[in-house]
Design goal:
The chain folds into two domains: about 170 residues, HUPs (Rossmann fold, 3-Layer(aba) Sandwich), CATH 3.40.50.620; about 90 residues, Pantoate--beta-alanine Ligase, Chain: A,domain 2 (2-Layer Sandwich). About 40% of the residues lie in helices and about 20% in strands. It contains nine helices and nine strands. A six-stranded parallel β-sheet has the order 1-4-3-2-5-6, sandwiched between helices. It has a three-stranded antiparallel β-sheet with strand order 7-8-9, covered by helices on one side. The longest helix has 24 residues. About 40% of the residues are buried. The mean pLDDT is about 100. The chain binds pantoate. Pantoate binds next to strand 2 and helix 6.
Length: about 280
C-alpha cells in the first residue's frame, strides 16, 4: 500500500494509472475509520482496479465553534485497517499540502445543501463540496463511495457531479449501525456510556415515525412524537424532518422517495441519522 501526503504526487499517480487503463475508486474520509468506512472500502474494492482512501480532516467544513481541533484521529490505526481491507493508496495530506495559504475558490451547491444540516451548519456543505471537488481532480476516480449516514451529503455531491460534469459515478453505500442500532460515526467516540444509551432514542424515534407515516399518511403527528421521544431521552433535537430525496423540499404528489432525517445533541455531541423510504 502506498501513502501519499503530497497532492501533486497523488494526481500524477492517478493520471498514470488512468493512462495505463486502470480504473480507480475513491473513498473520501476524515479518518478514525470504523466499520462503516470499511464497508465503503469493500464496495470500492469490488468496483475498481485501484482503491484510494483519502484521510483528511477538512478544516473548511468546520465552523469556528465546531470540533475541528478535537476531531478524533488515529492515523496508524487507519493505515492498518486500510491495509487489512486491501486498499492500494492512502492520501493523507497536511492542511497546507491540501490548500494553498491564499486559496480563494469554493465549490458550492446551492439548493439541496440548504435544509437539514445545511440550515444548522451553513458553511458545512460548501466545505465538503470544495474538498470533494479537489479530491476528484487529484484522485481521478471512476467511482467514489459515500455512506448514506450523511445522505444529504450524498445528494449534494451527486448534484455537484451532475452540474459540473465530473466523470465519476457516485456510489451511495448503506448506513452501517452497531448491533444496538446506533449509526456508526467517528463522533460516537465523544459519548459517555450513559449518553450513548440515551442516543439510541434517535434511531428508535425514526423507526416509529416511519411506521406511523406509512400507516397514517400524515407527517406532523409522527414528527412531533419523534421529537418528544428524543427529548424525553435527554437529547436536544436540532431537527427531525421529512423531505423529498430528489428536491430536499417537502414531499408532494411527485415524490418518489423521502428522507426522514434527524440531528440531535447528546451532551455536546451532535449525531445524525436517517431512514430513506418510499411513501
Ligand atoms: O463524510 C465525510 O467524512 C466528509 O464530509 C468527507 C466527504 C470526507 C469530506 O471531507
Amino acid at each position: 500500500m502506498q501513502i501519499f501526503n503530497n497532492r501533486r504526487e497523488l494526481q500524477q499517480f492517478a493520471l498514470d494509472a488512468k493512462r495505463s487503463g486502470k480504473t480507480i475508486a475513491l473513498v473520501p474520509t476524515m479518518g478514525f475509520l470504523h466499520d462503516g468506512h470499511m464497508s465503503l472500502i469493500d464496495i470500492a474494492r469490488q468496483k475498481a482496479d485501484i482503491v484510494i482512501v483519502s484521510i483528511f480532516v477538512n478544516p473548511k467544513q468546520f465552523a469556528p465553534t465546531e470540533d475541528f481541533d478535537r476531531y478524533p484521529r488515529d492515523f496508524d490505526g487507519d493505515v492498518a485497517k486500510c491495509a487489512d481491507h486491501d486498499a492500494d493508496v492512502i492520501f493523507a495530506p497536511e492542511i497546507d499540502a491540501m490548500y494553498d495559504g491564499n486559496a480563494s475558490t469554493w465549490v458550492e451547491e446551492t439548493v439541496l445543501a440548504k435544509p437539514l444540516c445545511g440550515a444548522s451548519r451553513p458553511t458545512f456543505y460548501r466545505g465538503v463540496t470544495t474538498v470533494v471537488a479537489k479530491l476528484f481532480l487529484l484522485a481521478q476516480p471512476d467511482y467514489a463511495v459515500f455512506g448514506l449516514k450523511d445522505a444529504q451529503q450524498c445528494f449534494v455531491i451527486q448534484r455537484m457531479v451532475r452540474d459540473l460534469d465530473f466523470p465519476v459515478e457516485i456510489i451511495p453505500a448503506p448506513l452501517v449501525r452497531d448491533a444496538d442500532g446506533l449509526a456508526l460515526s467517528s463522533r460516537n467516540r465523544y459519548l459517555s456510556a450513559d449518553e450513548r444509551t440515551r442516543a439510541l432514542s434517535i434511531h428508535r424515534s425514526l423507526l416509529a415515525a416511519k411506521a406511523r407515516i406509512q400507516k397514517e399518511k400524515a407527517f406532523a403527528p409522527a414528527l412531533e412524537e419523534a421529537v418528544a421521544t428524543v427529548t424525553a431521552a435527554g437529547g436536544r433535537v436540532d431537527y427531525i424532518e421529512i423531505l423529498d430525496c430528489d428536491t430536499m423540499l417537502s414531499p408532494d404528489a411527485n415524490t418518489r422517495q423521502v428522507i426522514l432525517a434527524a440531528a440531535a445533541f447528546f451532551g455536546t455531541t451532535r449525531l445524525i441519522d436517517n431512514e430513506i423510504f418510499a411513501l
